[in-house]
Amino acid sequence: MLTSALIWPLALSAAEMRGVTATEIRIGQTMPYSGPVSAFGALGKGEVGYFNMLNERGGIGGRKVNLISLDDGYAPPKTVEQTRRLVESDEVALIFSSIGTAHNTAIAKYLQGKNIPQLFVGSGASKFADIAQYPQATLGVQGPFRYEARLYARYALSKNPNARFAVISQNDDFGRDYLLGLKDVLGDNYDSIVTAATYEVQDPTIDSQIVKLKSSGADVFVIAATPKFAAQSIRKAFEIGWRPLTFLSNVAVWVNTVLEPAGLEASTGVLSTAYVKDPDDPAWKDDAGVKAWREFMTKYVPDGDQHDNNYVNSYNSAMALEAVLKACGDDLSTENILKQAYSIRDLELPMLLPGIKVNTSPTDHVPVDQMQFMRFNGKSWERFGELQTGN
Q1: Is 17 exposed, middle or buried (0-12, 13-18, 19+ CB in 10 A)?
Q2: Neighbouring-strand partners of residue 153
């Protein structure tokens, strides 16, 4: 370490420069490569691929970025265990894009105690924007769940002011954020017009919950679920002849892993929101950003499904972290990493929808707050309307 010690300003102690040498920046994350939402493991594979590409091009300031990506099986106790390993054994400079709302919650206090940044968390839960509670975290490069739900409520009421809502949600902070977003818009009417049912990630099926929700007489159905349960929700509603105005969480909009298993006919007409370019959308056929993404995928994630937008999200997240680390220059102390993470100005990422820019500040830890509505036409998603903000 003597060589690298000569590089850093004397005011910076070794503890402040943790995970950084003259040749390497070590970062860590946990991913559900196994378990009930293993489809999200694509995010980790894409991010590993991105930093492999970056390292081939010389890294950041001559340092290679070493992303250590560990499986937590989507189990918060395992997330804690693996994060401790990353911090105490691998001595990473920061935790990046770990997946899951409950999972990031479980490690937050520990990371704060160790003074480790928790950047671009793999969750759109609005709680991570609470600076008092999570001073060293930023939301991911995605529309926050609570904002998304507000947009769904406003849209539904614009079509039918007397709408009644049914919600299936995961029984954790991820699912609860959608209920909070609906409550933000529906206000005092919430309890009288919303029927909610929940599921646990270990549940084999949620058919009984969908039958119960249909019996409520609701004409709006909000699916706040991860891919497996989103597919079950759409399929079961169709099977029992329930045809409400249906909104699908934008973490579960994948055609190949959700809509096809649910049935393309059953999925036709479902609404959601977008903030990234869908490579399958003919509108982007000649787009330079999409072409560059496809080249990246072909070379660095050759086994990745180019119809899976998880790889688009991973590309955006990795690119945002690259911008933060480059802005740090040679000062890769925790203090400066956080300073740069909280001062992103109008960062345009080639796979975000046009007009959406990444912005943060010391009082705003939400990188993306705009989305656009889209509707599934039986083959692909079609975007419509202007960009909307859910704040």
Answers
A1: buried
A2: none
Task: Identify any residues that bridge with 381 across adjacent strands, giving them in sequence order.
Answer: 376
Cβ atoms of 181 and 145 closer than 8 Å: yes
Taking residues 239-246, what's their average pLDDT?
98
SS3 content of the chain, % helix, strand, coil (to 5): 45, 20, 40
The pTM (predicted TM-score) of the whole model is 0.87
Residue type, 3: T
Crossing angle of helices 173-186/101-114, nearest 10°?
A: 110
> What's the maximum distance between 2 C-alpha atoms anywhere in the chain?
71
Q: Which of 173, 182, 344, 376 is nearest to 274 (CA)?
A: 376
What are the tokens at 284?
Answer: 């982007």
| Residue spans of alpha helices (H) in 241-383 | 260-262, 264-267, 288-300, 310-328, 334-341
Query: To which residue do tokens 């994630």 refer?
Result: 301
For residue 277, the tally of other CB atoms under 10 A from its CB is: 23
3-state class of 384 per DSSP?
strand
Q: Name the residue with tokens 């890294």.
A: 59
Q: Name residue 351's amino acid.
A: M
Q: How far apart are the first and last CA of the chain?
A: 47
Write out pLDDT tens, residues 349-387.
999 999 999 999 999 999 999 999 999 999 999 999 999
Answer for the pair 40, 201: CB distance below 8 angstroms, yes or no. Answer: no
Taking Cα atoms as reference points, which of 211, 144, 212 lies closest to residue 178?
144
15: pLDDT strictly greater than 80? no
Per the CB < 8 A criterion, the answer to whether 73 and 32 are in contact is yes
Side-chain-side CA neighbours of residue 5 (13 Å): 5
How do strand 381-389 and strand 370-376 relate by DSSP bridges?
antiparallel
Alpha-helix residue ranges (DSSP H) falling in the chain: 2-7, 41-56, 76-88, 101-114, 145-159, 173-186, 190-193, 207-215, 227-239, 260-262, 264-267, 288-300, 310-328, 334-341
Rounded to whole angstroms, the Cα distance separating 96 from 93 reads 10
- The partner residues of 220 in beta bridges, in order of sequence, read 165, 245
